[in-house]
Amino acid sequence: MADFDFDAVVVGAGAVGLASGHALARRGLTVAVLEQDKVIGQGVSSRNSEVIHGGLYYPTGSLKARLCVQGRRMLYAFLDKHQVTYDRCGKLVVATNADEVPRLAAILEQALANDVEGMEELSKAQVHALEPELKAEAALHSPQSGIFESHAYMLALQGEIEAGGGAVVLATPFDGATPLDGGGFTVRAGGAEPAVLTCRYLVTAPGLSAQDVAKTIEGFPLTTIPVGHYGKGMYFRLTGKAPFSRLIYPPPIHGALGTHYRRDLGGQAVFGPDLTYVPTLDYSVDPSAEPAFAQYIRKFWPGLPDGALTPDYAGIRPKLHGPDEPQPDFRIDGRDAHGLEGLVALFGIESPGLTSSLAIGEEVAGRLGL
Ligand SMILES: Cc1cc2nc3c(=O)[nH]c(=O)nc-3n(C[C@H](O)[C@H](O)[C@H](O)COP(=O)(O)OP(=O)(O)OC[C@H]3O[C@@H](n4cnc5c(N)ncnc54)[C@H](O)[C@@H]3O)c2cc1C
C-alpha cells in the first residue's frame, strides 16, 4: 500500500470513527481520522447517557443485537486496559404497574436470545430489598449494564491510533472524495490548510452529517442514501441525593429506550432522554417540559420532591425512521450496498452506538476484507 498517503482515512472523530480507526490501526494500517471540530468527540458522542448497554432489546439477527453485546464485552476490557473509569452498576427494567409485567417476559426472552449474561427476574419484594424507594410490581436485573467516562474512552482510542503511526487531524473537515482508477480514493480536506490526500480505504462515521457526507463522494448512488431525521432527547438533573444506585429503566417507548434514571460518575441523579423529532440541531432544554418529566418519573419514584428537577442538556439521535415508522438497524454500508470498493459508510448510528463502537470498528474492518 506504499502508493497512498494513508492506508485509510476515517471521517469523524466521535466514538465510532475513532473505534473504526483503532480497529484498522490494530491491523497495522496507517490511519488518518479527519475531524471538523477543534476537539474530538463533540458530536453525538458528547450528548448521551454514557450507559454501557447490556443488549437486551434488539431484534434477533440485527446488527444492534450482535454488536451491542460484542461491543459491551470489548468495551469493559478496553476500559480496564486503559484505566478509564466505569461503574458496572447494573440496571433494573421495571414494570411500574401490573399491565407492564408481561412486557418484562418478552424483554427477558429477547435478552436470552441475544446472549446477554446474568439476567434475573426479580419479584416486588426483591426489588424493594435492592432499591427501597423504587415503585415496581416486578423487574429484570441486568448486571452487565453500567456507565462510563466516554470522553476518556475516546482519548484512549486516539492514543492507540497515534501509537500505531496514525493521526487524528482536528479542525479539518472532509470536503469530498473521488474513487481512483485501480482502487483507493483522493480525499479533499478543508480547514485552514486545505489538502488533497490519497488512501486505499475510506470510512465515513460523521454521525448527524452522514447523509451530507455521502453526497460528497463521487459515484455514491444517491438512491442508497437513507433519509435522516433528528430525534432530540432532553435530560433533567435532580437537586438532592441520588435515590437509586442502579440504572432504572421503565419498559421502552416506541423509537427509544425511554426516560430512565442514572446516577452519574459524580454521584448525581440524571433523568432522560425523552424523544421529540426536531427539524434543526436545537440543543436547548425547555423548562416547560418539567411537569411531564416529573409525572413520568413518579411512576417509578413516587418520592420525587416537587421542584427538584432542573433542565440539564439535550442530545440529538441520527435517526433513520420517522415518528410512526419501525426503528431500523444500524447501516454499515460496504460495496454491496453502494458499489464502491474500499468504502464503508455508516448511517443511523444512534443508541446503542457508544456501547457497540469497538464492535462496529471490527465490523467495518471486516466489510473492507481486513
Ligand atoms: C440522547 C442520546 C442518548 C444516547 N445514549 C446512549 C447510551 O447511553 N449508550 C449508548 O451506547 N449509546 C447512546 N447513544 C448513542 C451514541 O451516543 C451514538 O451512537 C454515538 O455517540 C455515535 O457516535 P459517532 O461517532 O457515530 O457520531 P459523533 O459522535 O456525532 O461523531 C461524528 C463526528 O464526525 C464529525 N464530522 C461530521 N461531518 C464531518 C466532516 N464533513 N468532516 C470531518 N468531520 C465531520 C463531527 O464533528 C463529529 O465529531 C445516545 C445518543 C443520544 C442522542
- Spans where pLDDT lies below 50 across 5 or more residues: none
Strand content: 25-35%
Order of helices and strands: EHEEHEEHEHEEHEEEEHEEEEEHEEHEH
- Tell me about the biggest sheet? 8 strands, mixed
- The termini sit apart by 13 Å
**Average pLDDT figure:** 96
Bound molecules: flavin-adenine dinucleotide
Shape: elongated
Could you estimate the helical fraction of the residues in percent? 25-40%
Helix/strand class: alpha+beta
Number of beta strands:
20
What is Rg? 21 Å
The total of helices stands at 9
Q: What does this entry look like structurally?
A:
The chain has 370 residues and is of the alpha+beta class. Strands 1, 2, 9, 10, 11, 12, 19 and 20 form an eight-stranded mixed beta sheet that branches. Strands 13, 15, 16, 17 and 18 form a five-stranded antiparallel beta sheet that branches. The protein has a four-stranded mixed beta sheet with strand order 6-7-5-14. The radius of gyration is 21 Å and the shape is elongated. It is 27% helix and 26% strand. It has nine helices and 20 strands. The protein binds flavin-adenine dinucleotide. Flavin-adenine dinucleotide binds at residues 11-17, 34-37, 42-45, 47-51, 53, 173-174, 205-209, 213, 233, 273, 315-317, 349-355.
